[in-house]
């Protein structure tokens, strides 16, 4: 069985900062933009993959 989602949202410290949205590409772009905007660091285990995608 394949996992799927119908909407995405971004939360920071338990607060939703971007409300649910159905577009995956926009969600991915918003996730990367939030790392850049808020100066977050990628988790060490995923940093190489995320930097490649970026």
Automatic annotation (TrEMBL):
Top-level taxon: Eukaryota
Protein name per the record: Golgin subfamily B member 1
Phylogenetic placement of the source organism: Eukaryota, Metazoa, Chordata, Craniata, Vertebrata
């Amino acid at each position: 069985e394949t996992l799927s989602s119908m909407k995405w949202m971004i939360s920071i410290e338990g607060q939703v900062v971007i409300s649910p949205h159905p577009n995956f590409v926009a969600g991915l772009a918003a996730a990367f933009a939030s790392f850049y905007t808020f100066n977050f660091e990628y988790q060490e285990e995923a940093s190489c993959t995320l930097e490649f995608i970026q």
